């Protein structure tokens, strides 16, 4: 029985992609909820503006999906985005990079070899672990910082999107 | 190839439990980082104090694990905790209930039948979905609100625990 439980699926790769993109859809709506200036300037307690948290998510998203799929991680924080600015300065540029990331994740996800998520790899040449752990880190880090964005919005008297809508 | 990917494991049940409890360990240290009074009173933007967010997590944790394991969910928000107060009024009482939940999760996790996480169920008689979705919701909701607790701590000039330490 114990062994049966251990080897039965928790979540399929297809469900995992849908789950990730569902969270990313919610984060996109959270970005949209910010007034343009507050997105890049509003902070609490010396923390980063929400735009910088979002750029961190973007640095993990497409490069991370590519790393998991191919083992090619590149250097943390650096990537190319088909001509888009990787240092967005407006909400529109940030959302363009977000949407590019969405497509990239779908592209690389389809190329993840069977069994790959149970393999060890060194993410971005720095963090060693099983690739599922890296994947969960990307998603959890997004949820964590988006939750912080919700506090920023509330402190600006703006209602965030519903957490359960993906 | 596509079919191979779809049926290969993302994460095993054993890894999933460790992942959940790792997050819960981090949340416990976040609770501990709050001064006693601020835990129950500090708010930003009309949001709940962190203690109330933690009680919400506790309402999902043990009762949710039991629901996934047995199909018996009980009524949302109501549960018994072996004589502990389920409406904690001090940090110590909150942490006692947290630690009770940790044990309960381990207890019920071992009883989850093979294949159960891919079954549909109506969580707490209210929310219909596959049980993996309910499980991820419990964890994601904790990450979301803990991230908000981090902003509360920063606004009190207190350094939160490192996000990557579980």
TrEMBL record, chains A, B:
One of its GO terms (molecular function) is metal ion binding. A divalent metal cation binds at residue 145. It holds the Pfam family DinB. The keyword Nucleotidyltransferase does not apply. InterPro entries: DinB (IPR007837), DinB/YfiT-like (IPR034660). Transmembrane segments: none annotated. SUPFAM superfamilies: DinB/YfiT-like putative metalloenzymes. Keywords: Metal-binding. Belongs to the DinB family. This is Uncharacterized damage-inducible protein DinB (Forms a four-helix bundle). It comes from Gracilimonas mengyeensis. The lineage of its organism: Bacteria, Pseudomonadati, Balneolota, Balneolia, Balneolales.
């Amino acid at each position: 029985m114990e062994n049966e439980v251990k080897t039965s699926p928790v979540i399929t790769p297809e469900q995992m992609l849908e789950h990730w993109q569902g969270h990313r859809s919610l984060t996109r709506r959270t970005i949209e909820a910010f007034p343009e200036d507050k997105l890049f300037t509003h902070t609490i307690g010396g923390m980063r503006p929400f735009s910088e948290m979002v750029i961190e998510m973007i640095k993990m998203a497409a490069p991370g999906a590519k790393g998991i799929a191919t083992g090619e991680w590149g250097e943390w924080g650096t990537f190319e985005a088909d001509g888009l600015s990787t240092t967005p300065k407006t909400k529109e540029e940030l959302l363009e990079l977000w949407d590019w990331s969405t497509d990239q994740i779908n592209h690389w996800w389809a190329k993840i070899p069977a069994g790959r998520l149970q393999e060890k790899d060194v993410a971005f040449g720095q963090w060693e672990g099983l690739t599922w752990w890296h994947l969960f880190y990307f998603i959890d880090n997004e949820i964590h910082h988006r939750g912080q964005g919700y506090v920023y919005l509330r402190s600006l008297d703006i209602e965030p999107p519903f957490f359960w809508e993906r």
